[in-house]
Amino acid sequence: MATLILVRHGRSTANTAGVLAGWTPGVTLDEHGAAQAAALPGRLAGLPIAAAVTSPLERCHQTLGPLLAARPELALHTDERIGECHYGDWSGRKLAELADEPLMRIVQQHPSAAAFPGGESMRAMQARAVDAVREWNARITEEHGADAVYVMCSHGDIIKSLVADALGMHLDLFQRIHVDPCSITAIRYTPTRPFLLRLGDTGDFGSLAPRQPDSAAAADQATEDGGNAVVGGGAGAA
């Protein structure tokens, strides 16, 4: 079956502001995110990409823009099922203030039981994303052959949930996975089981360095403390 190249969108204005964007309109790539997107065609230059699929949100379309410009023959498809989690009433709020919400402990430690007020459950988020990938795998394989490679641009929590599914991990463990903005995660699917080939690969080890007390670190601090994951993915390395 096809090999899936998952690309998290580049760093966005919400990432650097420490805001949980969700489906909030007007969230775009910041200057660094645009530079990340511009580098994407070179990073994928050696791959014969059969198709591209994207979340409907603007930051994902912007991330794939340079790749599509470099490969005008590449077909682009939009699929709402790989759009960001519907965070409901949490959308647009600062991560620092959300850290004090009782639900955050459930999101971190028992996400399969978490449902966002006015939004969706994390179980539903994963289920729709997994359904989308399985359908696209079958479609790409049928149209382009078992060795085909395709790109899918989505969001941090969506990609983490897809990786958990590929590894046979319970959703309650998915917060142990981290993917930086514009990182590449590759999964090769077979008739019997998937293989995780790359996870959150940016080709840059800067994010492994100790955190400095700058604004980016401060934006993440509320959810980094205590080893918690950043809901929505966080800004990653600048």
From TrEMBL:
Segments of skewed composition (Gly residues): 229-238
Alphabetic keyword roster: Hydrolase
InterPro entries attached to this UniProt entry: His_Pase_superF_clade-1 (IPR013078), His_PPase_superfam (IPR029033), Phosphoglycerate_Mutase (IPR051695), Phosphomutase_MSMEG4193_put (IPR022492)
Pfam family, one: His_Phos_1
Region (Disordered): 208-238
Gene3D superfamilies named among the record's database cross-references: Phosphoglycerate mutase-like (3.40.50.1240)
UniProt entry tagged with the keyword Hydrolase: yes
CDD domains documented for this protein: HP_PGM_like
Highest taxon of the lineage: Bacteria
Designated name of the protein: MSMEG_4193 family putative phosphomutase
Species the sequence originates in: Streptomyces bambusae
Lineage: Bacteria, Bacillati, Actinomycetota, Actinomycetes, Kitasatosporales
